[in-house]
Amino acid sequence: MEGRGLRAGFTTDAPPPLHMSEPLRRTAFNRLFAVVYFSAILALLYRHVRNLFLHPTTSFLSFSITLTLFISDLVLAFMWASAQAFRMSPIRRKEFPQNLKRIIKDKDFVGLDVFICTADPYKEPPMNVVNTALSLMAYDYPTEKISIYVSDDGGSVLTLFAFMEAAKFARHWLPFCREQNIMERSPNVYFCSNYQHPSSPHFDKIKMMYEDMKVKVEHVIDKDEVTDEYITDHQQRQAFNKWTKSFTRMDHPTVIQIILDKSHDKDISGRLMPNLIYVSRGKSKTSPHHFKAGALNVLLRVSAVMTNAPIILTQDCDMYSNDPQTPLRMLCYLSDPPLKSSLAFIQFPQRFHGVNKDDIYDTEYKLPFQINPMGLDGLKGPSYLGSGCFFRRRALLGDPSTPVAPEIPELSPEHVVNKPIRSQETLSLAHHVASCNYENETKWGSKTGFRYGSLVEDFYTSYRLHCEGWKSLFCNPERAAFLGNVPITLFDGVNQCKRWCIGLFEVAFSKYSPLTFGSQYMGLLMSLGYSHYAFCSFWCIPVTFYSFLPQLTLLNQVSIFPKEPWFFLYVFLFLGSYGQNFLDLILVGGTVRRWWNAQRMWMIRGLTCNLFASIEYLLRSLGISTYDFCLTSKVVDDEQSKRYGQGIFEFGVPSPLFVPLTVAAIINLFSFLSGLTGFFSGNNMEGLGLQMILTGSIVLNYLPVYGAIALRNDAGKMPTQIIIISPFVSVALYYASSLCLWSNNDSSKH
Ligand SMILES: O=c1ccn([C@@H]2O[C@H](COP(=O)(O)OP(=O)(O)O[C@H]3O[C@H](CO)[C@@H](O)[C@H](O)[C@H]3O)[C@@H](O)[C@H]2O)c(=O)[nH]1
Ligand SMILES: [Mn+2]
């Protein structure tokens, strides 16, 4: 325990506790188990080394097989060892927002600048973005302390239009939320939820307003332009006129539009509303825009000029607020001065709505988004997850002891804003700091702000902050603070993961690699934790080898795994790691089926995103290709959504990504069948038991793949191209492997 929680228990006049923390009970077991498991790994590696170098092996082939197994097991050992960072001192926190009002007054609440990023009105429907914004505007927090900044990298007039409509609706929505004290402050979620709604005239009226707005916005999106009938005043027309003929999403001047101004705009109950500011940063084809990190840095500067709140909440456009008290939880920590001094950010877990019952694609990512952060929280703190994170502005401008002075004084965290946001000076300065050339020759992205150089700007930024000496903290209340969308097709899920993996590789092999740079600046365990992610695509090495080698050798009746007693070592290592993973997931409320699906996805990711990310990263390093931030689509296709609801795997896209997977499925099936035939026809199958078990369990995992190849006729089945190519590749692999094994047999006879 630490902080106020403990102190409050002993003295009577101490202030009421705001937060507490305690170690997870299984920590002692984790440490003990780590020692045992580590010894087993050493034994296994010793055996490989002995076979490779100490015993002269009989042939080149068996040397190659052992080497392959050795490399695979080395990677597995590294992944295991680095994951221990999450197990050594996990903690759980609890905060008591109900005590807050007794300690600080409303007027002492800190200012909060909320950043919402969107990038494409067709993949990220503006109605969803607007719902996210409305849910955040309706926080239980003094409205005059909140400013919402929307970054539109899609540079779309449609998004601006949607927000103008949302501002009108907000005048009714915010007082409604307060009066009814509702929890779901995203109107869409509220109106769709199955609760007993008060069927009052008030409720019906507001629902109708929402529907009106929705119809209008969706109509404009269908038309792909804001037609005259929807333009109500001169100010709106002026704003829309900024979209000139030469305006494209990749090349246009900055557009900043103040939609709501908290010093003037009131809701229908007469209360002031939060600021709502639309920002589409300037872009040009000749200067890099650094994707989301670039967008966030622009918002950092624009908000500094306009409101300069000490706290910043960064939010993806699909991550709406699910709990209006969330900022109060954040305050519970920030009102604790000793804790605050080196605290850079408070991360809430990424959680999702609309996940199907058994989470077939493991899109919840419980390990990286909920379990592992608790582990890092006991060290220097969790990494930044991109959304649902409250930053201290100061943390993005230099290390805890030496602030970096920004180019202009208005960008300093100490700067006091004393001009209205609509004033000419403020607006022109805001345009200046949002322009596409502003960052040239500055420290933005390298030493200050969100860091550039990786497609996972969140991971990379927090990594650099932790190296600078900052700490972070994981706040994981029972009721999800935010809920976001999940991809509902395998292709989308795997593509998202591939982008992450490439971004992680960029960090892994940069001059700031966690293994070298990180271990110097943030200690062994933290750097191991970061390395675990940075190198996560290495999973493809053991997964690929273990999906093909034991199977191809089994087909040729060649044994590659040891007999007793070493056999038991394999069994222990396998059950140990699977068992621990099982416990991890079950203890956070998972089900057996969810665990099963998660381990299947680990296998599938190994052969898809991990493998392709490695290949693409290699090609890029050789200068052969470049990559892009491929947005995850948040649009829902009805048929796909139906199949997703039923838990049916969705392939559908004829992408090379699915080829290794399908080939592995075919080879495992035939290998397993030939093994079974061998057993039943009394062939000498000695030493092949482990290969049989492994192959059989992979076949079990791949059942949905077989279904998608052979049994289905819907649009989500395995595409014909892949069904045609994969058997050829499988047969070729089989013949190649047989050739190697036979020629080896022949040569050893001579
Ligand atoms: O050029 C860009 C590209 C993306 N985005 C925004 O970035 C967010 C995340 O994009 P998304 O396609 O949803 O990617 P995900 O993989 O789902 O996002 C996860 O991974 C990202 C990269 O690590 C993090 O930034 C996110 O917070 C995290 O939720 C969205 O709000 C986008 O609008 C931009 O603003 N500009
Ligand atoms: Mn997303």
From TrEMBL:
Primary residence: membrane
Keyword list, A-Z: Cell wall biogenesis/degradation, Glycosyltransferase, Membrane, Transferase, Transmembrane, Transmembrane helix
Residues given in the record as UDP-alpha-D-glucose binding sites: 123-124, 153
InterPro entries: Cellulose_synth, Nucleotide-diphossugar_trans
Residue positions of the active site: 153, 458
Membrane-topology descriptor: Multi-pass membrane protein
Signal sequence, renumbered to the chain: none
GO molecular function: cellulose synthase (UDP-forming) activity
Transmembrane segments: 28-48, 60-83, 530-549, 569-590, 602-619, 657-680, 692-710, 722-742
Protein's cellular compartments: Endomembrane system
BP-aspect Gene Ontology terms: cell wall organization; cellulose biosynthetic process
Positions of Mn(2+) binding: 292, 316
GO cellular component, one term: endomembrane system
Highest taxon, organism lineage: Eukaryota
Pfam families recorded: Cellulose_synt
Record's protein name: Glycosyltransferase 2-like domain-containing protein
Organism: Gossypium raimondii (Peruvian cotton)
